[in-house]
Write a structure and sequence with these properties.
The complex is a heterodimer. Chain A is of the alpha+beta class. Chain A is built from five helices and five strands, in the order βααββαααββ. By secondary structure, chain B is an alpha/beta fold. Chain B is built from 17 helices and eleven strands. The longest helix of chain B has 17 residues. Classes of the chains: A alpha+beta, B alpha/beta.
Chain lengths: 144, 457
C-alpha cells in the first residue's frame, strides 16, 4: 500500500438534484482521513462550486481526486461549451447562466471567484466547444 | 481509542438485552454493535438521542435517573418542570392538579423552566448581532444536537450559540432567589423533570459549562405515572395542599420547546428543523455551503421537538396541541393575568443572570476519522475499500455491525473480522476455507449461543 489515494466521480450535466454528491463524498473521505477541519471546509466549498459549474454549463464531466499526505488535488474535466474568456469569468458577478438556472439559486456569478478564494491553487484551462478543466489544489501541511 | 468524551444517560442492561439489533439499526450515528448476543454502545459516537430506547422491545435500554428519595435530603425541594409536562395530560387535567400532586409527592416549590427563556432570548439576539460574520448560528437548546455537531459536524462547533440553556438559567434564578431569602445553600435541592436522556447527560457532564445549579434529574415518565395515578384515583388536589402562587409564562415562553419555538423569535432568516436524521441531512448541505444565507438554525433531535422526547408519555401531537391552546389562552387572558400575577419574577434577577450566560468553548470531537495520523488513516481507508469488494452491500447487520461499510471500518480498526459476514462465510464454506462448525461458531460469537439452539429436537 502506498500513501496515495485516488477517487473518481461522474457528473451529469443539467441534473441539479444530484449536484453536490461528489463534493459530499470528498468531504466524507477527508473527514475520515482526519484532515484539518478548516481545510476540509475550504476544499468542499471550492469543489462544490466547481461541481455545480459542471452541472450548470457542461454536458458531462468527471471529477478526479488524488490525495496524499501533502496535498489534495481535485481535477474536474468536463465536456461542454468551454470558457471563451477565463479572466472575465473570474470577475465577481459575471455569469452566463440562464434565467432558469438563476431561479434555482445558482449562477450568481460568484462561482469562480469563490473557488479562487477557497482553493490554495486554482488552475483553469478551457477550449471553446470542447470543454473545461479545473484543477483545485489544497496543501495539507502549510500553516496559516 | 481516545478517552471517553461524554457521560451517557442511556444504559444498556446486558441481563435484559436479547440481542435483536433493533437499536443498532436505528442509531443515527452508528454507535451500536452486537457482540456475544448483546448490544454494545460505542461511547464516543453516542449523542444520547434515544432512538434506541424507543425501539427496544424488551426494555433493556434504561435512562438513568436520580433516586426520587434524594429530594428529601433537602429542606427546599424544587421541581423544575418543562412546559411539556402539562402537555402530557388530557385537557381535563389542570396544571393546578399536576402541581398539587407534585407537592403531595414532597416537592416544596415548583418552577417552570421556560421562565429562563425570557433572559435567554434577548441574550441570543444580542449574541447574533455581535457575531454577524458567523452564519448560521446554531441553537444549543437540544443537548443531543450539540453532541451531534461535535462528533459529526466538528467544523460547526464555532457556530453553536455559546450561551447557557434556559434550564440552567431557571435553576440559577431559583437558587439565587432562595439564597436571598436566607436559605442555607446546603438545603436547596433543584430537581429537573426531564423529557429526554440528552438533558440528563448534559446536566451530568455539561459540554461547555462545568457547573450546573441543578441537583438531580427525575424522568418525566415517572412523574407522569404518579400524577396520572393520583388523578385516576380521584385526587383533586384542593384538599391537602395550597398551591404556591406561580409566575405565569408568556405565550412565546410556553411554545419555546416546540418546533419553531426559537426560530420564530430570532432575527433574519431563521429555520427550524426537528428529528435527528432530518438534521443530519440538512447539516450535510450546510457543510457544503449549498445553503449559505441562513442566520439562525433551531435544530432538535426529536420529532415535534421536546413533545416527542423519549420520556414523554402522552401523544406528541396532542402535547403540541395542548401547549398551543395554553399559549392562546394566556394571550386571551393577558389583562386579567397581569393583575393576578405574583410580584416575584425572574426579571428581578435579569441583569445578574444575564452577566453569567457564557459557557466554555464547545470542542469538536470528530468521530469520522479513521486515525489521528493521516498516513495511517489512509492505510485504513485503503483497507476499507479492499474489504468492501468482498462485502455484499446488503447491510443486513448479521455481522453485528449496522452496515457493510461499518463492518469494513470495524475490520480496518481491528475490531472485527471479515468472516463475520454471512456472505463471506458461505463463500468460505464453499471453498473449504471454513467448516460449517467454524462458521456456526462465528455466528454464535456475534449473536450468542441461545439463538442457535435447535428447539425441534
Amino acid at each position: 500500500m502506498d500513501n496515495q489515494m485516488h477517487f473518481e466521480y461522474n457528473v451529469e450535466g443539467g441534473n441539479f438534484t444530484r449536484a453536490g454528491y461528489a463534493s459530499s463524498q470528498i468531504k466524507k473521505i477527508l473527514k475520515q482521513l482526519n484532515v484539518d477541519i478548516a481545510i476540509i471546509k475550504r476544499t468542499v466549498v471550492a469543489t462544490y462550486e466547481a461541481e455545480v459549474n459542471v452541472v450548470a454549463h457542461a454536458y458531462s464531466g468527471t471529477i478526479y481526486v488524488d490525495i496524499d499526505t501533502e496535498a489534495v488535488k481535485i481535477r474536474l474535466v468536463d465536456e461542454g461549451p468551454g470558457i471563451p474568456d477565463i479572466d472575465q469569468a473570474m470577475e465577481e458577478g459575471y455569469s452566463t447562466a440562464s434565467s432558469q438556472v438563476r431561479e434555482m439559486g445558482f449562477g450568481a456569478g460568484m462561482g469562480l471567484p469563490n473557488m479562487k478564494k477557497n482553493a490554495d491553487k486554482l488552475e483553469i484551462s478551457s477550449e471553446v466547444d470542447k470543454g473545461t478543466t479545473v484543477e483545485i489544489t489544497m496543501f495539507l501541511n502549510e500553516k496559516g | 481509542m481516545s478517552g471517553k468524551y461524554f457521560h451517557h444517560a442511556l444504559k444498556f442492561r446486558k441481563d435484559v438485552c436479547i440481542g435483536c439489533s433493533h437499536c443498532m439499526n436505528v442509531c443515527p450515528t452508528q454507535a451500536i454493535r452486537i457482540h456475544g448476543g448483546k448490544a454494545e454502545l460505542t461511547d464516543n459516537r453516542c449523542v444520547d438521542c434515544g432512538k434506541c430506547y424507543l425501539v427496544c422491545p424488551v426494555g433493556a435500554i434504561i435512562v438513568e435517573q436520580d433516586d426520587f428519595s434524594r429530594i428529601f435530603e433537602y429542606e427546599h425541594r424544587v421541581a423544575l418542570i418543562p412546559s411539556i409536562l402539562p402537555g402530557q395530560f388530557p385537557e381535563s387535567v389542570s396544571i393546578r392538579q399536576i402541581c398539587s400532586v407534585l407537592l403531595e409527592m414532597g416537592f416544596t416549590d415548583i418552577f417552570e423552566v421556560e421562565h429562563g427563556t425570557r433572559i435567554l432570548k434577548d441574550a441570543m439576539i444580542k449574541y447574533m448581532d455581535e457575531r454577524k460574520d458567523t452564519r448560521p448560528l446554531i441553537s444549543t437548546f437540544c443537548p443531543a444536537i450539540v453532541r451531534l455537531i461535535q462528533v459529526k459536524f466538528p467544523n460547526y462547533t464555532g457556530n453553536l450559540i455559546h450561551l447557557k440553556a434556559s434550564l440552567d438559567i431557571a435553576a440559577q434564578y431559583y437558587q439565587k432567589k432562595l439564597l436571598d431569602q436566607g436559605v442555607d445553600p446546603e438545603q436547596i435541592g433543584i430537581f429537573y423533570i426531564t423529557p429526554c436522556a440528552a438533558k440528563i447527560a448534559a446536566i451530568k457532564s455539561p459540554v461547555g459549562d462545568e457547573h450546573s445549579a441543578i441537583t438531580g434529574v427525575i424522568n418525566m415518565d415517572f412523574i407522569f405515572n404518579k400524577v396520572y395515578t393520583s388523578v385516576k384515583q380521584g385526587f383533586s388536589g384542593k384538599k391537602t395542599c395550597t398551591i404556591p402562587r406561580m409566575q405565569h409564562l408568556q405565550p412565546e415562553e410556553i411554545l419555546w420547546t416546540l418546533t419553531d419555538g426559537e426560530a420564530s423569535l430570532m432575527p433574519g432568516r431563521a429555520l427550524a428543523i426537528d428529528e435527528i436524521t432530518n438534521v443530519i441531512e440538512f447539516m450535510e448541505k450546510i457543510e457544503n455551503e449549498e445553503i449559505s444565507d441562513i442566520d439562525f438554525l433551531e435544530l432538535r433531535a426529536c420529532d415535534q421537538s421536546c413533545a416527542g422526547g423519549i420520556l414523554t408519555s402522552g401523544n406528541r401531537f396532542f402535547a403540541v396541541e395542548r401547549l398551543r391552546n395554553n399559549a392562546r389562552m394566556v394571550k386571551d387572558q393577558e389583562k386579567i393575568r397581569v393583575t393576578r400575577e405574583s410580584k416575584e419574577s425572574i426579571d428581578d434577577y435579569a441583569e445578574e443572570l444575564g452577566k453569567d450566560l457564557a459557557v466554555n468553548k464547545i470542542l469538536p470531537r470528530s468521530m469520522d476519522k479513521l486515525d489521528e495520523d493521516m498516513t495511517r488513516a489512509m492505510q485504513k481507508m485503503q483497507k476499507v475499500q479492499e474489504i468492501m469488494k468482498t462485502l455484499p452491500y446488503v447491510d443486513c447487520g448479521l455481522c453485528g455491525s449496522p452496515t457493510c461499510n461499518a463492518l469494513a471500518e470495524d475490520i480496518a480498526q481491528g475490531e472485527a473480522v471479515v468472516d463475520q459476514c454471512i456472505f463471506v462465510q458461505k463463500k468460505y464454506e464453499q471453498s473449504g476455507k471454513l467448516t460449517p462448525k467454524e462458521s456456526m461458531e462465528k455466528m454464535q460469537k456475534i449473536w450468542g449461543h441461545e439463538k442457535f439452539e435447535d428447539s425441534t429436537n
